[in-house]
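User: I've been going back and forth on whether these two constructs are worth ordering. Before I decide, could you fold them both?

Assistant: Sure. I'll take them in the order you sent them. The first construct and its structure tokens:
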Amino acid sequence: MSKKSALILAAGEGRRMKTSKPKVLAEVLFKPMIDWVTDAVQAGGVDEICVVTGHCHEELENHLGGKFKIAVQNELLGTGHAVMQAKEFIKANSPGNILIINGDAPLIDAKTISTAFEYHESHKNAVTIISAKIDNPFGYGRIIRNKDKCLKRIVEENDATNAEKMINEVNSGAYWFNCSVLLDALEGIVEMHDKKGQAEYYLTDAIEVILAKNLNAVAYEAGNPDAVLSANDRVQLQLLNEIARKKVMREHLLAGVSIPCPDGVMISPSVKIGNETEILPGTILKGNTVIGENCVIGPNSLIEDSIIEDGVTLNNVQCFSSTVKKNASVGPFARIRPDCVIGEGVKAGNFVEFKNATIGDRTSVSHLTYIGDADFGSEVNVGCGCATVNYNGKEKNRTRVDDHAFIGCSTYLVAPVRVGKNAYTAAGSVITEDVPENSLAIARARQSVKKDWIIKKKPYKWQK
């Protein structure tokens, strides 16, 4: 096969999105639209990618992180003009074929890209337009075919007759071009622009130029009708989110994941979930999260960029950039902040918060406790209302609690401090010194009772 490259048009301002960011950074399932497109293009076997940026191009370029070549469209004068800004990239990849695709079409898939290319190359086409038939073609360019079903032209919504508006095969905005043919067609676009007195340079005019030269220009109908969908405003963006949400959930359901009620469930496309795991309503799974088998996640849980091993239960839990090991149970109303490792069989109850902490296997942290910047061993019992005091105003220090220790209710561990193996702390203690193993630490004032103090201090009528 010949060399494949891609040019992604991503210069849109997003005025109808009511955003100051580049439009292509608007998210579908928490993933910017441009990332959906670049991932699909790369998975479709494309060798090199150039992104045409425009509005707030520095922000978009920072997001792309130097992974792709960049061309800047300083004046937004249409799709044809955007392609012209990347002439040097097209020349560098000639001879060969180039995919022109919009950066706001997140539902395009690798299979559509690769099968359209195979058709394009096998038929030696000058250009192959990826089209699709959709239920509501309003706003899209219509594919006009002749009696032999061959491509005749593409007509935009504003230029279409009533009969043409009834056609439901539309232009996706994605094309496979022969690079040499495209470079010649760009010259033709300029001539048509000047001749027609148009305000912008339209890439669709390239199709007219190519057809006029009797070269092969073909509309290839994609099997995925969603491939043509894009978003120009928040209403369309919400529709894309819903389509993508259902598609991702369906894939997980078919793979053996249980989602008994999909209300409020949102799963990023990069999330992996094991068989027989149950996802309950209101659960959001983001980023590169990996969830094992036989877990129960939710209701109302948020898991981001975390590893959840087999048999874990997370009930009303927020978990970020952490690992929860096998058969642990956390929640309800618990929070796991970044850089935590929650060990096997750990039980953490309501209103418990972990931060940058390692919790050993089978440790119990039942309720109302904060453990931050700490290393707890295995089979430790932590009572109600405890906290690691990890910040002294200048620096953060770590707390260490060894295996089988017992931390009494309302104990405060002032870091840096270590509680040894099998050691106990008495309820209500403020521990500021290390506790040797097998010891009991009591760090509280001795109770003193002053009889009749209230009567003497503040007598009440009923006491008389």
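The second construct, handled the same way:
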Amino acid sequence: MQRTRSSVTGSTVIWILLLIAGGYLIILLLMYLFQAAFIYFPTKNIVATPEDRGLAYEDVFLHTDDGLRLHGWFIPAEDSRGSVLFFHGNAGNISGRLESITVFNNLGLDVMIFDYRGYGRSEGKPTEQGTYKDAIVAWRYLTEVQDKNPQRIILFGRSLGGGVASWLASEVNAGALVLESTFTSAADLAAEIYPFIPVRWLLHIRYPAIDYLKKIDMPVLIAHSKGDDVIPYHHGEKLFEAAGEPKYWMEMRGGHNDGFIQTAQHYIDSWDRFITKIME
């Protein structure tokens, strides 16, 4: 009887372990297949426009090389000091960035902001390579249609947008790159969030911002907050280490989504000094 009970107990343990292993593998498979749902959080509804902030603007429609139509805004500045090509984060759409648009406009920068594929009024579904295609067509619009001097264009990426902006900076000859609250790579961040899952093997959405940063030759400003509750501060420190000269650091305050607001006048002054150094 003891042997029978031991045999039954052993079989039960094996089946439990197999079920756990099977469940773990299913979780890995689902994460691999649906990882875009863990990274991109687009919304379609445009809740406000620059006109609500008293800013004149143009609706812009861009056509990508793979046949999609994207939507964006061009907001000119009076007595323009240059232009900023704005790459927003992974959630919402351009209508949630009016606070930043106003800051840049008040600093004398023309603003070109657009929605990646799948966001706002832009067609398609977001992918890493797709966002890179979107970035290049926005660059062409600013340099060819608006005829802006590439050396007076600042590529600005916030959060995930920093991954897109750093890729574009490695491909074009812009005036400067600004990365705000950005990760070293999506894989690095995911590995910290899910330490017991082999995310580096699973992720095909990577955005290796730090690798792109090592390839560029233009002024760089890195901004990050110690209070960032989404992308840890050391990501900003590592990006700053990897950047070539000339490079500048902006210490921010507040959380991931409100850092530029909480940093207040220091944020505006830091941008103003940076613009002066690289453009005037």
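Notes on the second construct follow. The first strand starts at residue 41 and ends at 42. The mean pLDDT is 91.
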